[in-house]
């Protein structure tokens, strides 16, 4: 019997951008530009893990830390690998990193039409905060609303059991 290939994590680097861009363009109707990724790679306070299986890029995320909060900017899972819990693994990694940054909150926006992503975020404990009208481009003439979601993180004191 063959063993299933193991998943592994690695930080995104400039050398990864060609395959990141392939997955980004495959996955999003309005993908980030290579410049967006380069700027994130070159800016302190960004978290950009990639999830791989052997040499296959399965997913990645981009998040930035601010004062006591983290903002999720991009999370992408290869279309053929969706529905296997990889989005949840990426969101769990984000929460661990956010807590290491002493963040008290994680914020994100999701397209109103992206019901699968919204359901994932809700199942990970994120709650609806507001609607940002006309936030995302939809086509040349129209825009789409963004759902703003938030998750409060347990403080270090509560995690350690201190009162």
Automatic annotation (TrEMBL):
Gene: rimI
Main subcellular location of this protein, as a coarse class: cytoplasm
Domain N-acetyltransferase: 7-154
UniProt: acetyl-CoA binding residues: 114
Species this chain originates from: Lampropedia aestuarii
Physiological role: Acetylates the N-terminal alanine of ribosomal protein bS18.
EC number, as in UniProt: 2.3.1.266
Name of the protein this chain belongs to: [Ribosomal protein bS18]-alanine N-acetyltransferase
GO MF: protein-N-terminal-alanine acetyltransferase activity
KW Signal (keyword) present: no
Active site: 109 (proton acceptor), 121 (proton donor)
InterPro entries: AcTrfase_RimI/Ard1, Acyl_CoA_acyltransferase, GNAT_dom, RimI, YpeA/RimI_acetyltransf
GO terms under cellular component: cytoplasm
Catalysed reactions listed for this entry: N-terminal L-alanyl-[ribosomal protein bS18] + acetyl-CoA = N-terminal N(alpha)-acetyl-L-alanyl-[ribosomal protein bS18] + CoA + H(+)
DNA damage found in the keyword field: no
Localization annotation: Cytoplasm
Similarity-based family: Belongs to the acetyltransferase family. RimI subfamily.
Keyword entries, A-Z: Acyltransferase, Cytoplasm, Transferase
């Amino acid at each position: 019997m063959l063993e299933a290939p193991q998943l592994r994590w690695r930080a995104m680097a400039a050398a990864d951008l060609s395959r990141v861009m392939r997955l980004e363009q495959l996955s999003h109707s309005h993908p980030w530009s290579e410049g967006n990724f380069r700027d994130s790679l070159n800016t302190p306070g960004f978290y950009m893990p990639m999830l791989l299986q052997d040499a296959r890029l399965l997913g990645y995320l981009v998040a930035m830390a601010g004062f006591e909060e983290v903002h999720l900017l991009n999370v992408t899972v290869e279309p053929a690998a969706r529905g296997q819990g990889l989005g949840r693994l990426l969101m769990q990694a984000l929460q661990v990193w956010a807590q290491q940054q002493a963040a008290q909150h994680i914020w994100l926006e999701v397209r109103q039409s992206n019901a699968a992503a919204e359901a994932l975020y809700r199942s990970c404990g994120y709650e609806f905060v507001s609607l940002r009208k006309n936030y995302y481009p939809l086509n040349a003439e129209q825009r789409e609303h963004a759902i703003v979601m938030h998750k409060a993180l347990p403080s270090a004191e509560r995690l350690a059991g201190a009162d």
